[in-house]
Amino acid sequence: FLALKIANVNWQSKLNKAAHHTSDYSSTEAILRRGQAFNITLNLQTTVQYEDNFTFIASTGPSPAESQQTKAIFNLSEEDASGWRATQEPSEPGCMNFTIFSPANAVIGRYKLKLQIVSGNKVSSTLLGQFVLLFNPWCPNDDVYMANEKERQEYVLNDSGIIFQGLEKYIQQEAWNYGQFEEDILDISLAILDRSLNHRQDPAVDVSNRNNPIYVSRVISATVNSNDEKGVVEGKWNGKYCSGTNPLQWSGSVTILRKWYKGRYKPVRYGQCWVFAGVMCTVLRSLGIPTRVITNFNSAHDRNINLSIDKYIDISGKTLHLTEDSVWNFHVWNESWFIRRDLGSFYDGWQVLDATPQERSKGIYQCGPASTRAIKEGDVNLDYDSSFVFAAVNADYVTWIHYSNKRKERIYSDTRKIGKFISTKAVGTNSRVDVTANYKYPEGSLKERRVYKKALKLLGVRSTEKRTKITRPRRRSSVACRQNMTQPAQKPSISGKLILDASPVIGQDILLTLALRNLISDFKTIKVNLRASAILYTRRPKAEILQLSRSIKLGSEEVKEISFKISYSQYKNSLTDDRKILVTAVCETKQGASLLVEKDIVLQDPFLTIKVLGPTVVHKAVNVQVTFTNPLSEVVTDCVLRAEGSGLLKEQLKINVARMAAMESSTVQFEITPYKSGTRQLQVDLVCTHFSDIKGFVILDVAPA
Fold first, then answer.
1. Quick check: is 314 catalytic?
2. Mind listing the domains of the chain with CATH numbers?
3. Of 331, 379, 600, 605, which residue is the catalytic one?
4. Which residue intervals define the domain Transglutaminase-like in the entry (predicted)?
């Protein structure tokens, strides 16, 4: 019995990784992309010329089968029906070189490669090793093919980025460390697929579906949250975070994913929307699906998908929880790039995915992929969840005053508030790119209204209740109820505006002015009920800060300003970590007309400066100096400075800052030793119990060793 004696197998790791754009992965394993050839060399113990029959077997998953495309058996030079093939290349004596081709629609995941040799009537089989096969955005026949190299560099290979947060009028940049190439992250991403409900129900069918980015991305959107299958991150939007980490304190995905993996798949506490989106971006990029993070300002959470968000307040301006609907200051989701064989080529391109557990889709907390083209055209009946995303960017915002006698008055209907400044990080730079035009036609245009009506019809919402009969914008109506929304609006008799006197910084008083204008020529007395509440970014009030009432006399077409302040001592114990305050003023005239004026305020962080003291070169230590200021007029203790960055620090660095006097500046120095070249992002976060995190980041260009 003559068997081929193999001394060892050389997987040509460096060459293959360079050709397959996988050099950045920390693993020593062969990591390859589908639809592209790779080379292996067998070093033989004996230098005999073999004329035997060579057969390769590539298999993946728990029960590989040719019928499921999870097993391929292919001979030299003959392309198997599965699309796999191998050719023998010229070689030195004592070794054999093979080129192996995988199809562009192969199942992704970890494979075993075996060599089977038939000599006469004897068969011998040798395991050559394992490799991981990924999606291939460089391959024109792959469903995730992306033609532009700069975009591939950004959406597949960039391991850090920016997530936009804040308010539509105060957009903030938050750095995020995706770290998809860091140690264990690819293994963890594959483990996430294996933990899904689909895999538990039928592992063989689940694995056979992993050739399809529509399927893989939808499964990831379900498994990144913990709601159904003990997924990666547990969401929390209320109460204290004592039993976990405050969502605002995460700076990247690596720590979260490793914690989940090492903690035997126990959901990591806690996340909010940007955490779910950051983690999902890491996982999808690591698997080779081009992905980016999107922020939608004034994002509607429309529970009943009737394209109307109703907000109820009482006469003092207090928010009443009479509806499940809400408008978040911002909401963060993902877009991934692939074609839609299920819908047709018109819907190819960017697809919305959302791992934040907001609503069930087919019984599970998952969302997408929804084609951005479908959302823009109002095709809300198309898979998956396009109606939910359409509402998030298009719903009307209707404000009602609810009187103590159960009477309701609709005082404002805004058709333009929802879905503003939809943002993502630019390709190659950290600037903001507005992608609102990918989601909708210009507000108020004929095309936009047509799309809106089409969506209403598909959703089965009676259009008499909608924009067709509502004057836009509208601040005043006679007594109107939900069933009777078609009464013509009266002209408003007063207008108002809340003005911030200065950019408020945490630790300082907030100075505000309410400017009221009488729009008609009669004299009137106005009762103003003013209220300030600490809110989360979901605009849910958490604590009352201030409430006051004033009476104002306005002459004919007169303008009057009321100044007031919210002192630090008033807000310091109520402020949430989101550092957001909602100020509302309900203004009533004797004639019964009402005006609501609202302002969202974000308290700014004091600045944190980062200096890198010297050139950054791979494997050379360099010092970093961080300077920050205690913003409060009181002593703070027990702060921690945290630093992280892919290619710069293997894991998060923590430095204790024992004590800072009132308004004192402090400097901390630490050392980093970069281990990857190229553009790198160092993120620093000062965590303190007395005020919410102060974050900063710096971009470094690391030279090769």
1. no
2. 6-134 (2.60.40.10), 159-459 (3.90.260.10), 494-602 (2.60.40.10), 608-702 (2.60.40.10)
3. 331
4. 265-357
